[in-house]
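Structure (tokenized):
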């Protein structure tokens, strides 16, 4: 009995209308001392108030399961994307209820406004939708769904606590991956600002000698076979397939820097997942290497259907390290893992020429054996500072330093290009489009 009363008391909430009625009753009793003609009015009002409160308590508490609620959530959330969630609520009372719904979302979002108000007729149900945008990979813990229910009388509310604690993993941006995948399949990839590259020439992978037919390239005529057969014969070539594409992700301290709430490492991880998926759609083999002061994950290139899930699981677990990248270890890892000439896309970051000079000898060695594409990040905050007009001496100093650092980024691109290393200097928010553009251009020009 004590437990039942405690539960009743803990789930009972008094509304603003309840306290307003109490204040009115107190005022009436006070006025009755000065104005005797009020008579029994205060007593009648207070008695009616108690009757209404008792009636509403009976309406809300006589039915033990008057409200049904359940959270609708996907099995996993996509990092840096708007993920759709919902709360299904159903009114099982025989009267119309006013409802307030709270979802206890993970603390990482730092949001306290996931609160919904709605009205449900008897037997009616609704799905209350909302979105969450995580900015960090990992496991997110959701709490309970809490529903506050009141009748049209509006003096009290009853609280329902739906025990629905659950943990949802946040994976790299698979929603963006699917979006680019659909664009690639439907040949509408240019809608995302991705260039359509004209394919030049043909590959040199010989297939067979066949009879010449009008329309064949006369430069491919095989004159020796023609002399033997007595009719024109031509060499047939096939498009090169199953080239190896590796994304190498630097997860050292240079990738810890945040932009718009997301670290550079997460930008690189999202871009790698999207790019490798597009590469597999183009019949290439996709592989992954992560590196810091120690060797991280190595996923050998493959194009089997399970490869993408293997890459996604590997990227989900990656975290930023706090030491510099061991470039010698990266070189030996690439030489030991990549058995044929491959496209190596290295996601890293340089803030100064001295940072580049420490890594350049190793990058040049890698570029001797593979087609190396270095992707690093434009500091958008420095760019904004350099473009703003200066108003005093301090701002002139800040603007000068910002312009100097932005100019260093351009010098880094020039230095890498001088040594035959392809380079992308990209703002973090444009990374997906820029890397796919570069890959499609390399693929079309058959540089691998």
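Design, position by position:
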């Amino acid at each position: 009995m004590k437990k039942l009363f405690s539960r009743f008391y803990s789930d009972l909430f008094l509304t603003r209308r309840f306290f307003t009625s109490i204040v009115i009753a107190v005022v009436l009793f006070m006025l009755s001392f000065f104005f005797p003609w009020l008579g029994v009015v205060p007593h009648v009002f207070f008695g009616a108030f108690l009757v209404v409160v008792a009636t509403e308590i009976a309406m809300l508490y006589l039915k033990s399961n008057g409200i049904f609620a359940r959270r609708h959530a996907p099995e996993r959330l996509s990092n840096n994307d708007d993920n759709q969630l919902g709360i299904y609520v159903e009114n099982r009372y025989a009267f119309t209820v006013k409802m307030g719904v709270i979802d206890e979302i993970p603390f990482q979002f730092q949001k306290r406004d996931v609160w919904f108000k709605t009205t449900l007729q008897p037997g009616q149900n609704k799905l209350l939708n909302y979105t969450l945008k995580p900015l960090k990979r990992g496991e997110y813990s959701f709490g309970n769904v809490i529903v506050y229910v009141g009748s049209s009388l509006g003096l009290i509310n009853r609280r329902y606590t739906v025990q629905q604690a659950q943990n949802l993993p946040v994976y790299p941006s698979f929603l963006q991956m699917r979006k680019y995948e659909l664009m690639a399949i439907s040949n509408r990839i240019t809608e995302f600002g991705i260039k359509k590259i004209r394919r030049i020439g043909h590959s040199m992978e010989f297939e067979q000698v066949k009879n010449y037919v009008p329309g064949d390239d006369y430069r491919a005529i095989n004159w020796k076979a023609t002399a033997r057969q007595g009719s024109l014969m031509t060499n047939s070539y096939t498009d090169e397939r199953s080239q190896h594409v590796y994304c190498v992700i630097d997860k050292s301290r240079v990738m810890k820097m945040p932009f718009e709430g997301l670290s550079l490492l997460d930008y690189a991880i999202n871009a790698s997942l999207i790019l490798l998926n597009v590469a597999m759609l183009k019949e290439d083999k996709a592989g992954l290497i992560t590196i810091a002061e120690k060797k991280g994950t190595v996923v050998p290139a493959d194009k089997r259907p399970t490869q993408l899930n293997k890459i996604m699981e590997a990227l989900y677990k990656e975290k930023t390290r706090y030491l510099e990248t061991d470039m010698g270890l990266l070189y030996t890892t690439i030489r030991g893992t990549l058995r044929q000439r491959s496209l190596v896309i290295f996601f890293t970051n340089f803030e100064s020429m001295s940072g580049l000079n420490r890594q350049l000898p190793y990058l040049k060695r890698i570029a001797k054996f593979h087609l190396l594409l270095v992707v690093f990040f434009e500091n958008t905050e420095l760019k904004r500072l350099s473009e703003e007009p200066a108003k005093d001496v301090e701002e002139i100093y800040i603007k000068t330093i910002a312009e100097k650092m932005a100019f260093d980024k351009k010098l880094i691109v020039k230095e890498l290009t001088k040594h035959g290393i392809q380079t992308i200097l990209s703002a973090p928010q444009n990374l997906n489009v820029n890397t796919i553009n570069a890959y499609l251009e390399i693929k079309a020009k058959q540089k691998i």
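Reviewer-requested clarification: The longest strand covers residues 83-91. The mean pLDDT is 87.
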